[in-house]
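User: Hi! I'm working on a homework problem where we have to compare a predicted structure to a textbook description. Could you give me the structure for the chain below?
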Amino acid sequence: ARFWAGHLDLDALAWDVRWGGGGANPVTLEGSGTVGEPESSGGKIPHLEFNVDFGGGDANIDAKGEFTGLDPSAITDDTSMAGKLDGTGDVKVTLRSYATPVTADSIDVTGRVDLAHSHIGGLAVDTAVVDGTDKNRTGKLTELTVEGPDLHVKGTGPIELTDPGRQDIAL
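Assistant: Happy to help. Predicted structure tokens:
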């Protein structure tokens, strides 16, 4: 396989990349960079650091940053989830066999998201933390905390996102 390397520097994006092709998997791409102030899903991402690695048939994405004004209904396509999310995230996502159709079964996620002064579906959220893992639709919530004027939730435990699924979350 032949590899190339480059650097892209735009107003809101700086990205170092190395790529090549050939072999059993159509492309190898490794990159890292930072993003500042782009608008996404009705909100802004003031700062985002990321690393990507498309190699060996899987896509591995690490992202850490902050977001403001993100509308959850734009992501879920569910207007009942309309609101505004402000917070930070530190997540690692693997898309297994990304060259085939991506399904819930082919996505692994681990990480933490912290919210502050947010609104989701008409509920005010003063602070929230979701920290956990999910692989093959089975995972663990290390920490779930949601605090608001009408909401006080704390929990940990295993989760299964299968049908019918089993949740043994201690609340």
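For your comparison, note the following. Confidence is low (pLDDT under 50) at residues 1-10. The helical segments are 72-76. Good luck with the assignment!
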